Amino acid sequence: MRPNELLLWLSARREGSWQQFRQAVEQLHSSDGGANSESNDEFPLHQQLRLDLERLAHVEFFAADCKDGWRIAPPTLATHSVSVGVRGVLCGARSPALRERMSRGAERFNGQILDSLDVPDVIRVVAVDASALAEFAAQTSIRFQQDAPLAILSHLPPCDPPSRMRRPSEFPQGSDWTIHEFDTAKLAWRKIQRSEAQVTHFGMLRFLIHFQRPRYFLRWKDRTFEMPRAVALYALLRRHRQGVLRYNGDAAALSLPAICRPPRLLERALVLCSGLPPVYANGQLTYW
Q1: Contact 261/237 with Cβ under 8 angstroms?
Q2: What is the per-residue burial (b if ≥16 Cβ within 10 Å, else e) of 174-185?
Q3: pLDDT tens for residues 109-145?
């Protein structure tokens, strides 16, 4: 099962458990024997595919109505203004019939179908103005989202430290947890003991245990808050006044250390500007 077939399988099932997704990815891996270039101890293959499917707005994981699993997003043409007009990227559920309709549209609208070993084919179409793509989406029976990156950014919450009114959390109990603290100077994790975590004044901590997703905690003024990884990370980086983002205006490319992945919705907005997942090289992620 390749990524294209995985997306077709997810589209046919519509939703499912995390275990079902992992089993499908294991089948993908065993049949192809591939490995993703961004893989490391924090990115096994199933996690990398999850990230890419979320980045490309194909699948939602652990959302409000699927907290223990995933659900496919509705097929949508997400548009973004570019120098030659407006570009649309196909997101969400797919079927062989929809792919065929989009392929014909690619011929009409100076489109592209970009294949990859790591993600489902990226299908893009370009028109002079958004109205032409809106009409094409209606004819193709898919949704249309104008200025998709801006629409996402308009709903993006800030990466602020926890407010005084927020209720503190508690660390997971048990001796089986492996605990790491994030080193903002070295941009790396270091293993620590629970006793060290409990007296950290400011810091981000990662708790790992077999067969469960990592849990992330921000220690802020001697209080503990369980938070999304990226929110805790950027709140801490801002406190240390450490900038990690680099923008190349000539190439229209944003780069940052891979360990400092942005919040999920922000990353999706970045990816939908081109429809391409970030490129990983030398410890950096670059978004085009």
Answers
A1: no
A2: eeebebbbbebe
A3: 888 999 987 899 999 999 999 999 999 999 999 999 9
